[in-house]
Structures are given as structure tokens and as C-alpha cells.
Design goal:
Distance between the termini: 32 Å
Number of helices: 9
Number of strands: 11
CATH class: Alpha Beta
Strand content: 15-25%
Oligomer: single chain
């Protein structure tokens, strides 16, 4: 889609909840200097990579605090797996999983570290923000629950709008499609969809400065389509929003290196992250924070 790319190296603030902001730098032809690491904390028994690893309040809290020490500045807490084929989890069960963790983290994390709740349900988002979350990370882009966008507007928190082609229960791993998902042009189609969702969010009353976007790597995209999104990530700069990316341990990463075990994909995930950060990504959502932080340091990147 046509659009004017904002001037590069203009530092802006992503407004999240509880009077906090996250600095980000508009992309363009020059790679942003700033990047933020967002730690994945799945309080689930069935996530594709770390299901069961942090399924208790104590283990999830310990992991999140360790991620913060290693360099994460956002902790993303989720109580429902979004892996392909995953079954839905009730609002009540999501809240039972995530709220005690968010409550503990709000009390124990340094004040400059934001907490995100990974949910598509407005009721879960409301309770999570009440407990201390500052960001709602909605993998449905606010389409799963019609109450979500108005709820976020009322809460005054930050929001990540992610693209997905279908619900997880109907999806497949990127290297297992019988037929590739159909797009006219995967990059431009995803970009157009995110533009519409940003407009819908602002129409619902959400501050435009509170929105970030995520192209949804691994969600309804083949291996080749995911690689196209990574290669052409600069095109998303026209949205003038922080770009969140998450390739960490995903199946298309495994397919490119021939590694079936998600936990053995961390080094390749780091390379993917560095590539996307050089193409305009602002926030990188990862499993292994220490490895990503070390790579950013070695590359001379400023992460915060």
C-alpha cells in the first residue's frame, strides 16, 4: 500500500498503562538504534515450546524475575496456548492462571518494567490491568471479543494488535500445510489488515499512541510467507507504530535449519531477531532473554 514512511531515527513513546511509556524509534531506511526485549511467560500446560515449564505461580514468577534481570523490559504473561490446534481456555481458567502471577510481578518487578497480558478476552484483560498489567497483547487484533477494543479504551493501557489468518484451533504449523495459506501479497495483505485494525481501535476510543502492531509470524503463514514478512518488514513503517515481532522457536525457524525440537532453535531465533531489528522492529518477544541480550550487546545495539 502507498504511504509516506516517517523520518527515521525519530524517537517516540509508546503509551502503556499506569502512566508508563516505552521508547521506540521509527524505522525507515536506517535501522532503529533502540529495541526492547519482551519475555514470554506462558502459564500453560500446552504451549508449543515451554508448555508446563512455568505452569505454577512460583515457577512463572521466578522465570519472569530472572528474565527481567537478564534484560527484558516487558514481561508477557499468557494463560492460553495459541499454538496450532490448541483448544480454547475459559476466561475463568485464564484468570486463575495469570492473575496471581501478574499480582506478584506487579509487587516485585522494578517500576520501569511493564507487564503485558497475552489474551483475546476483554474480561481477562480488565482483571489483568487491575492487577498491574500495562499492556494487552491480543493475537486476534481485537476481533475475537467485540468487547475488547472498548475495554482497552476504558482501561487506558497499551495494546498490541497482531495479525492472524484464523483461530489457533483451525491453524497448522507453518511447515505442515497441505496447501499454503492464500494471500495476494502476504506483506501488503497483512499490512492492510493491521491498518484497518488500528483504525478500528482508535474509533473505539483507544489513543493511537497506545497501539503497537505485530505481523503475526507463524500465524496462518507458510515458511516462505514468514520469511517474506521478515525480509520486507520495513514496509510496516508506514503504520508509524512500534513493530512487535516474535519468531522465537517457531516452526518456520525449525524448518529453515532442520531442527524439530523447539528448544534447540534459540540460536537461529536470535539471528532472526537481529535481522528483523535491522529492518525496523522495535520490540522482540522471545523465550531466551539472556541469549538475545548477549547478541544485542555483541552487535552494539542499544536495548532497554
Amino acid at each position: 500500500m502507498a504511504g509516506t514512511v516517517p523520518d527515521h531515527q525519530a524517537v517516540r513513546e509508546w503509551r502503556i498503562g499506569h502512566n508508563r511509556t516505552v521508547k521506540w524509534e521509527v524505522g525507515g531506511d536506517t535501522a532503529p538504534r533502540l529495541c526492547t526485549l519482551m519475555a514470554i511467560v506462558n502459564v500453560t500446560p500446552d504451549s508449543f515450546s515451554d508448555g508446563g515449564d512455568h505452569a505454577t505461580v512460583e515457577r512463572a514468577t521466578e522465570h519472569a524475575l530472572r528474565c527481567a534481570e537478564q534484560g527484558a523490559r516487558i514481561i508477557d504473561v499468557g494463560g492460553e496456548s495459541t499454538r496450532p490446534g490448541a483448544a480454547r481456555v475459559s476466561d475463568a481458567e485464564q484468570m486463575a492462571r495469570v492473575l496471581p502471577v501478574i499480582r506478584r510481578l506487579a509487587a516485585e518487578l522494578p517500576s520501569d518494567i511493564g507487564i503485558s497480558v497475552d489474551t483475546t478476552r476483554a474480561a481477562v484483560a480488565r482483571r489483568a490491568v487491575d492487577e498491574g498489567a500495562a499492556i494487552v497483547n491480543d493475537v486476534s487484533g481485537g476481533t475475537d471479543d467485540p468487547s475488547m477494543l472498548p475495554a482497552v479504551a476504558q482501561l487506558g493501557c497499551g495494546m498490541i494488535l497482531m495479525h492472524r489468518l484464523c483461530e489457533p484451533a483451525e491453524d497448522s504449523y507453518s511447515d505442515r500445510y497441505a496447501r499454503d495459506p492464500v494471500y495476494a501479497d502476504v506483506v501488503q495483505d497483512v499490512l492492510a489488515w493491521l491498518r484497518v485494525r488500528c483504525e478500528a481501535a482508535m474509533h473505539a476510543g483507544i489513543d493511537g499512541a497506545a497501539l503497537a502492531v505485530d505481523p503475526g509470524l507463524g500465524f496462518g503463514k507458510s515458511v516462505a510467507q514468514n520469511l517474506q514478512l521478515m525480509e520486507r518488514l520495513r514496509e510496516f513503517a508506514v503504520l508509524a507504530r512500534p513493530i512487535v515481532v516474535s519468531a522465537s522457536r517457531k516452526s518456520f525457524i525449525g524448518a529453515t535449519i532442520g531442527e524439530p525440537d523447539p528448544k534447540r532453535r534459540d540460536s537461529a531465533s536470535v539471528q532472526a531477531a537481529l535481522s528483523m531489528l535491522s529492518r525496523g522492529a522495535s520490540i522482540c518477544r522471545v523465550h531466551d532473554v539472556a541469549l538475545h541480550a548477549a547478541a544485542l550487546h555483541a552487535a552494539g545495539r542499544c536495548y532497554h
